[in-house]
């Protein structure tokens, strides 16, 4: 059976490239998009390749970046502009095949297996790359491989404007000698864990004992062994855009913060923001997670899963704030985040009766009896509790949001 042919398209320095496309005078100059260009809380979101050559990198704070590169041009993010560019990119991809899966605002997968029966995959990739460059003035890299993991890996091998083919038979030569932290899906914490059990390269991981990895990392350990061997059975799924798994928001504080009332106020604002986005998407979730990054850039998180799904700001805040106060040791904090996950459509919610909500159900009982009476007389479904009205679009203010996926649901 012939192998699948999967593309992974990754835009190069996307936000900065969009800014340069809109303002050609910025081309060839070191530029960076930052969350807040005037305050210390300003963090570099992305930078042009000219800036990267000067040592500028994502997550560097603005003050440090300006010290390193005084001529750096700083721009505030313009998410509507980036979303419009993203929509145009994916429109080009869908002119080749409908089997396109966006995974972020600037990257996605394509399954071109059928298309490759009549055209060479390299020819298709080159044409796509040139169309995006000429029509949108945006550079991209494309990885070509038999599965998603290898395609993603390939797209990272040559930037900017690269096209890379990666075959399973090439893994031993091209990937296995690399440090395990360079593998897609392995972060610094996982890499340290792997190093502690004498797994230093991707080759070490590929040849590791599954039982040992399972005991250390659970199912993810076994998954990583398979990926290191080039095994990935995930399909390119265009419908994944409808599968929202979580809704969250985070913020970098203006300074290393340890003031109780400021941290509490920040959690209130984050909880309100998450609740607004849940409302727009008509979702609720059973797990609340907080993210904390301290003054030394050490990240930690805490989660709580509740029986009844939450979507109101006060409910989310109550859980998030308790998670924080139970855990916080008064170490100064730089970043905070709140996420609600394990989400479901609010119409699917079933609430557990308890001492606190029983009274509300009792109040609803006369209404329920009235509905039963009307349906007995006029037929089942003659009256409904209500019709959901689509909320106005919520303008996302964070680059970590996946609200761009709404553009693909129209």
From TrEMBL:
The keyword DNA-binding appears for this protein: yes
Residues the UniProt record annotates as site (Substrate discrimination): 15
Keyword annotations of the record: Cytoplasm, DNA damage, DNA repair, DNA replication, DNA-binding, DNA-directed DNA polymerase, Magnesium, Metal-binding, Mutator protein, Nucleotidyltransferase, Transferase
Molecular-function GO term, any one: DNA-directed DNA polymerase activity
Family as reported in the entry's similarity comment: Belongs to the DNA polymerase type-Y family.
Quaternary structure and partners: Monomer.
Protein name: DNA polymerase IV
UniProt organism field: Solibacillus faecavium
Species classification: Bacteria, Bacillati, Bacillota, Bacilli, Bacillales
């Amino acid at each position: 059976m012939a192998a699948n042919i999967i593309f992974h398209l990754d835009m190069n320095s996307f936000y900065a490239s969009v800014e340069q496309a809109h303002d050609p005078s910025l081309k060839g100059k070191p530029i960076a998009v930052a969350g807040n260009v005037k305050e210390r809380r300003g963090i570099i979101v992305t930078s042009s390749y000219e800036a990267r050559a000067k040592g500028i990198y994502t997550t560097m704070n603005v003050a440090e970046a300006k010290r390193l590169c005084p001529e750096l041009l700083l721009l505030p993010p313009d998410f509507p502009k980036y979303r419009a560019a993203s929509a145009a990119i994916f429109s080009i991809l869908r002119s080749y095949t409908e089997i396109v899966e966006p995974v972020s605002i600037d990257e996605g997968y394509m399954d071109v297996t059928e298309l490759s029966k009549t055209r060479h995959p390299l020819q298709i990739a080159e044409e796509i790359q040139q169309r995006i460059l000429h029509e949108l003035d945006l550079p991209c890299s494309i990885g070509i491989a038999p599965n998603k993991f290898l395609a993603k890996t390939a797209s990272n091998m040559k930037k900017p404007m690269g096209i890379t083919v990666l075959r399973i038979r090439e893994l031993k030569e091209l990937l296995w000698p690399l440090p395990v932290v360079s593998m897609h899906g392995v972060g610094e914490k996982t890499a340290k864990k792997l190093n502690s059990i004498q797994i230093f390269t991707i080759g070490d991981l590929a040849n590791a004992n599954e039982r040992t990895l399972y005991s250390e990392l659970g199912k993810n350990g076994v998954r990583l062994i398979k990926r290191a061997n080039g095994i990935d059975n995930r399909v390119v799924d265009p419908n994944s855009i409808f599968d929202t798994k979580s809704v969250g928001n985070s913020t970098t504080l203006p300074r290393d913060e340890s003031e109780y009332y400021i941290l509490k106020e920040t959690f209130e604002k984050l909880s309100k923001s998450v609740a607004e986005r849940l409302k727009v998407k008509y979702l609720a979730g059973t797990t609340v997670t907080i993210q904390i990054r301290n003054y030394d850039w050490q990240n930690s998180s805490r989660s709580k899963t509740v029986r009844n799904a939450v979507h109101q700001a006060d409910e989310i805040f109550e859980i998030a704030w308790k998670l924080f106060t139970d855990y916080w040791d008064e170490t100064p904090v730089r970043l905070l985040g709140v996420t609600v996950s394990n989400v479901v459509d609010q119409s699917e919610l079933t609430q557990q009766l308890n001492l606190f909500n029983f009274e509300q159900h009792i109040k609803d009982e006369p209404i329920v009896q009235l509905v039963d009476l009307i349906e007995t007389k006029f037929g089942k479904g003659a009256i409904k509790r209500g019709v959901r009205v689509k909320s106005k679009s919520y303008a996302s203010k964070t680059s970590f949001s996946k609200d761009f996926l709404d553009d693909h649901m129209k």
